[in-house]
Specification:
- The protein has about 325 residues and is an alpha+beta fold.
- It has six helices and ten strands.
- α3 runs parallel beside α5 and α4 runs antiparallel to α5.
- The longest helix has 30 residues.
- The relative contact order is 0.12.
């Protein structure tokens, strides 16, 4: 009964809902390391700070204890500071964390990524607490460096996240839902040039071009004529294995996968062409196989380079 009286207030009127407490949150990114496409994760070292007024439901608020990384885990906290700044409470810490990410690898190895960290409070819903980003003071660190990548475009924002579940609490209705304030901060990763792509894909390009040298060898010289194509196939297969070891298993075809498939198709076509020329040579039709070889020695390399060039161009669009 007392609870009911408190809820409805004097005269039976429902009091206005109290405004949620505002918590200002800022971040400063120190380091990003251990980027792994294969394991779908990266490590992040950053400072985080909170400013809030300790009143109402936030009177005993401990943000460093109750913050939760939705898409990762906190591995450690150091340099903890907790103090008062006028009427506001202040808490900060240096955090090391592992962040999990499903990388968008369609353009690999010409890819770029937007990496983000999603932070929520594990204790208070958004009717009690809302985050507000400290845009003025949040940024990337001056010494942030990631080999092979350019990191830029830091941004932070606060949103609401709704969860349609009662978390197995049978005292709540099955269709219960809860909404939490979520702080998101992140940055862009762009590859620093095409050096890594050249190192990764040069084998497939040169091995395929070597296979086309067979068009300059007489069909009766079976060993070198067919050996070039077979050797090129093995080289491209080995290159495809190296690429596959760098990214997670997926039904997705990356640009690198498509280039390997195109290369294998051209090499196979060159071997078929050599078999046709051999048949014509055995039949005494020398003019026919010479004419076909003269055509293919220009057509195959040009078509292959145009096709692979288009795949690379498409990845930058």
């Amino acid at each position: 009964m007392l609870a009911a009286i408190v809820a409805f207030g004097v005269g039976g009127a429902m009091p206005a809902a109290a405004a949620p407490g505002k918590v200002v949150v800022g971040t400063y990114i120190n380091k990003m390391t251990e980027v792994s496409f294969k394991e779908s994760k990266f490590s992040l070292d950053f400072y985080i700070w909170f400013r809030w007024k300790a009143e109402g439901e936030l009177a005993e608020y401990k943000p460093l204890a109750s913050m939760e990384l939705i898409n990762g885990r906190i591995d450690g906290q150091t340099s903890v500071v907790e103090k008062k700044i006028g009427e506001l409470n202040y808490a900060s810490a240096r955090v090391t964390a592992t962040i999990f990410k499903n990388w968008a690898l369609e353009s690999f190895p010409f890819d770029s990524h937007r990496v983000q960290v999603h932070l929520e409070d594990s204790q208070f819903v958004d009717s009690a607490l809302v985050f507000e980003p400290d845009i003025t003071n949040s940024r990337l660190g001056d010494e942030l460096s990631l080999p092979g990548w350019v990191v830029s475009g830091f941004a932070t924002q606060a949103t609401q996240k709704e969860y349609k579940t009662n978390y197995g609490d049978t005292s709540q209705p099955t269709d219960a839902l809860s909404t939490y304030s979520r702080l998101t901060f992140g940055m862009d990763m762009t590859r620093a040039g095409v050096g890594s792509a050249v190192k990764l894909l040069s084998t497939v390009v040169f091995a395929t071009l070597v296979a086309f040298v067979a068009f300059g060898i007489r069909p009766v010289d079976v060993d070198p004529r067919f050996g070039l194509g077979v050797g090129a196939l093995f080289a491209v297969a080995a290159s495809a294995f190296v690429v596959a070891s760098a990214i997670p298993e997926s039904a997705l075809l990356t640009v690198a996968d498509q280039m390997h498939m195109v290369a294998m198709g051209f090499i196979f076509a060159s071997i078929v062409q050599s078999a046709i020329c051999l048949k014509w040579d055995e039949a005494g039709e020398e003019a026919k196989w010479k004419r076909l070889d003269r055509l293919c020695i220009f057509l195959f390399p040009a078509a292959f380079l145009l096709w692979t060039g288009w795949l690379v161009f498409k990845s930058f669009r």
